[in-house]
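Quiz preparation item.
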């Protein structure tokens, strides 16, 4: 989930089952892989086809931390127009960047919290890196909808929805292909529901993390 700032072919296996859940107005989404294991860090998002409530706009900025030379969280979902702040909580400097089409930016070597947030104003996938620590990678998935969440370690995410019809999709860093291939339609009326997705995962290569040097003699 996100924090709030406050001062090998990728064959996609769709559709499990629609059931009743616990809290009125909540859609519980479960994502699993082809072996039936829960999938963490999956973005689930819905676009309103019809709705009783107008879409909301993003308000407060979101935080993506740098802790122990890693981005936290690994996957963040935000609505178009959201500002993101990148605090560096390590005692060394980081250089945050993205060359993604949806958002290209750099925050050169710094400690502490940058003065200005980064505004994610175009929908799409943004891959984050660090110019000093090659293994540091994270993802920001920008959606043009106020209805989204990220799955937890149990592969579950909840989204509060007004009544209406929605198209639901899922994205994950190890998903190969177009998320639209997994799209499902759901109608929310009275009471809660749940929705299931199953995905086949592909291997994604990541640079190996360098051994610690005590953070005293260099950037590693």
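Solution:
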């Amino acid at each position: 989930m996100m924090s709030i700032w406050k001062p090998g072919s990728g064959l996609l296996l769709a559709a499990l089952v629609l059931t009743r859940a616990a809290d009125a107005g909540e859609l519980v989404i479960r994502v699993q892989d082809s072996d039936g294991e829960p999938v963490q860090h999956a973005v689930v998002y819905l676009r309103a086809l019809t709705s009783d409530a107008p879409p909301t706009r993003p308000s407060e900025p979101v935080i993506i931390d740098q802790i122990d030379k890693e981005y936290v969280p690994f996957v963040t979902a935000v609505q178009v127009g959201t500002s993101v702040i990148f605090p560096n909580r390590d005692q060394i400097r980081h250089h945050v960047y993205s060359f993604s089409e949806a958002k290209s930016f750099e925050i050169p070597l710094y400690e502490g919290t940058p003065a200005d947030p980064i505004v994610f104003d175009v929908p799409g996938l943004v891959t984050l890196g660090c110019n000093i620590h090659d293994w540091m990678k994270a993802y920001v998935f920008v959606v043009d909808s106020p209805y989204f969440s990220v799955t937890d370690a149990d592969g579950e995410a909840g989204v509060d929805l007004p009544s209406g019809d929605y198209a639901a999709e899922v994205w994950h860093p190890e998903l190969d292909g177009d998320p639209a291939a997994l799209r499902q339609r759901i109608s929310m009326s009275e009471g809660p529901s749940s929705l299931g997705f199953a995905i086949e995962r592909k291997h994604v290569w990541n640079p190996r993390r360098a051994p610690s040097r005590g953070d005293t003699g260099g950037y590693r």
